[in-house]
Amino acid sequence: MNLSEFEREVKELFDADLVERAKNLKKSGNIFNPIFYIFFTRIVELSAIINDMVLPNRYELEELFRTRKDFLQIDYGTIGETIRRAWLYERERGVEFTFSNSVEDMLYLLYRMGKLQGKLDRIIMKYAEWEKNKLAELYFTILKILLELEDRINREIREEA
Known about the structure:
The protein has 6 helices and no strands. The chain has helices spanning 3-12, 16-28, 34-50, 58-93, 103-127, 132-160. Helix 1 runs antiparallel to helix 5, helix 2 (16-28) packs across helix 5 (103-127) and helix 4 runs antiparallel to helix 5.
């Protein structure tokens, strides 16, 4: 397994547009954090692998990805309904939620999540070795990349202020 090549491919998923929109969300006070969303979903998957809920083989990993995709579709519907209700509530009380200032960025990032997660799945499958510790190492590498990205975004926001 070439971990440095894996890391490079994962980092390439997070292009400048995605990073800029994630920064915009943070600056506007939006509750949604796409980096954390990916971090959380991947830490849940890692936990399933570490705790032997998912065995380190192609079938089980693909099934894990399929389940996450199903939940993402449910999340889209729930998020859409939540936004709709928030707008109704804002109209009733006459005051906007701060997240309303960046709904466009949030919806764009939500749209990108499905594609990004799918690409990340393919990268994992490309480098996967069917041994628990080696698969876990891929996931820990992803988590490290996400933490570094989140840190970079926070630093850039502070520097811009």
